[in-house]
From TrEMBL:
Entry superkingdom: Bacteria
InterPro entries, A to Z: SAM-dependent_MTases_sf (IPR029063), TrmK (IPR006901)
Coiled coil regions, renumbered to chain: 186-229
PANTHER family: TRNA (ADENINE(22)-N(1))-METHYLTRANSFERASE
Record-linked Pfam families: TrmK (PF04816)
Biological processes annotated in GO: methylation
Keyword Coiled coil (UniProt): yes
Record has Protein biosynthesis as a keyword: no
Entry keywords, A to Z: Coiled coil, Methyltransferase, Transferase
One annotated GO molecular function: tRNA (adenine(22)-N1)-methyltransferase activity
Name used for this protein in its record: SAM-dependent methyltransferase
Amino acid sequence: NLSKRLTLVAEQIPPGSTIADIGSDHAYLPCYALKHGLITSAIAGEVNEGPFQSAVEQVRKLNYTDEISVRKGNGLQVLNKGEVDVITIAGMGGPLIVSILEHGREKLPGIKRLILQPNVAANQIRVWLEENNWILINEEIIEEDGVIYEILTADREGNSPYSEEKRNLELLLGPFLMEKRSDIFLKKWKSELTSWKEIVQQFEKAKQTNEVVEKKKQLLEKINEVEEVLKWQN
Ligand code: SAM
């Protein structure tokens, strides 16, 4: 059975797509998507030998070798132009996902949708999407085995989900997630607030250099803003 996390990623694939799953490990996601008729073909990319072999074996075991091409290589290097219309990258940190997209820039024309599931620092992905003219069209947040995950979907076209006044806050929390305010979302940011407050206490104990004072001020502003959001009533 596919994890709840990867099932949610799969749900973001428009039926009939061809996908590239980068950092595919066992190729569970493309195999699931093919089995459920979401895709016609896929590329599973892996940079490391162990996970690459796991993907090869999984695809062979399910007799999907005609439809799923398992390729070894770094990031988007495994793709040829025009081969797929959706890219999925799941289970890595936000900065690594951004770096894969950044280094694979020349492979992005022709891609219609990005489905990205960062384990941390989703805000860095939102910023990258904005700077590169991708439109964030959906966000999901879930908890599985005690870990909270976010799934970001971006298309080439659509209306910007960001407002002028709250843009920075929306880039941090996620405009759709802020709107939905699910229990998991509230839980995540309450826990972030707790750790930020601990950092403020560290700052208070430290020597009050200009840098410390400035950092503390910025963090307190961020705490206030996020607390405001958590206080809103539906
Ligand atoms: N995508 C799967 C998931 O969400 O369950 C596997 C996630 S696993 C934690 C991350 C995988 O990404 C590892 O198998 C790792 O080898 C691979 N990886 C890391 N950096 C990569 C890169 N630059 N290009 C391709 N694969 C990469």
